[in-house]
Amino acid sequence: MSLTTSSRKQGENQPDDGASPAKPPRIKIGKSSEDSDKKGAHRRVKDVEICVPIVYGTIAFYLGRKASESQSHKWTVYVRGATNEDLGVVIKRVVFQLHPSFNNPTRVLESPPFELSECGWGEFEIGISLFFHNDICDKQLDLFHHLKLYPEDESGPQTTKKPVVVESYNEIVYPDPSENFLARVQNHPAVIVPRMPAGFNLPYPVSIESVNEREKGDTKDHPLNQWFMNFSEADELLKLAAARQQVQAHIVKLRRQLSVMDGPPPLSKQPTSYDYT
């Protein structure tokens, strides 16, 4: 069984009437169907939700003089933390499904960074399947992303210096996480863990492997880091506020244009002596 979802791309879902901004899309991951057989190893922490913000998308560079009819762009598709963290503490495997024209179109990545690069000339939809560690969930999460090679504004020649970047943001929510999972991610930079009740102690210590994962969890030195978009909450609120102002100004401008097109209001009829009889 798999889970599917739609997501919000950078700049989409902005209110057009000054309304409150929409909350970011959230995907709730159900419990494993094998929980009943693994109560000892996967005991659940009730009334707790773990949230993992993720970003998935593509960056495409025009090859310029190196471009050919069959290879005009080099592009990279990836899944990353919202602020560029390593997601290996949560995601076990990522499968990218490319266009059938590629050699070996099903690409499986068993370890982070969860990304792959290719060269081509056409745009198409990429399937992205996320598989989680055994103590999290046995269901895969299916996402879809459209590879975009050409900028929206094609008025001038395409440049090799600035890539075309399209990214989508989502928040994966894990309700009632297992104690193992909670212990492993409680201090990881890619994971949002709520404050636990006073006196709460996890029975399972964090393993050595998890400590190492936590130390390498920050991947802000990624070579494509300068092109990654910012999906922080503060940044999103500023963009939404600016968008509302632009929309309101546009509405005022349209009303003025309509008023000019309709002409001045007709003069009211002056009463005559007959109107009073």
Provide the descriptors you would attach to this structure in a database record.
single chain; 277 residues; alpha+beta; Immunoglobulin-like; six-stranded mixed sheet; five-stranded mixed sheet; 3 helices; 11 strands; 16% helix; flat; disordered N terminus; transcription; YEATS
What's the CATH topology name of the domain at 52-172? Answer: Immunoglobulin-like
CATH architecture of the domain at 52-172: Sandwich
- Just give the CATH class of the domain at 52-172: Mainly Beta
Beta-strand percentage?
A: 25-35%
Give the helices and strands, then pairings.
Elements: E1 2-4, E2 8-9, E3 26-28, E4 49-62, E5 73-81, E6 91-97, E7 106-109, E8 114-120, E9 125-132, E10 140-146, E11 164-175, H1 179-185, H2 208-215, H3 233-262
Parallel strand pairs: 1-10, 3-11
Antiparallel strand pairs: 2-11, 4-5, 4-11, 5-8, 6-7, 6-9, 9-10
Explain what this protein looks like in three dimensions.
There is one protein chain. With 277 residues, this protein is an alpha+beta fold. Helix content is 16%, strand content 27%. The chain has a domain at 52-172: Immunoglobulin-like (Sandwich), CATH 2.60.40.1970. The chain has helices spanning 179-185, 208-215, 233-262; strands at residues 2-4, 8-9, 26-28, 49-62, 73-81, 91-97, 106-109, 114-120, 125-132, 140-146, 164-175. Strands 2, 3, 4, 5, 8 and 11 form a six-stranded mixed sheet that branches. The protein starts with a strand and ends in a 15-residue tail after the last helix. Mean pLDDT is 77; it is low at 1-8, 10-22 and 210-217.
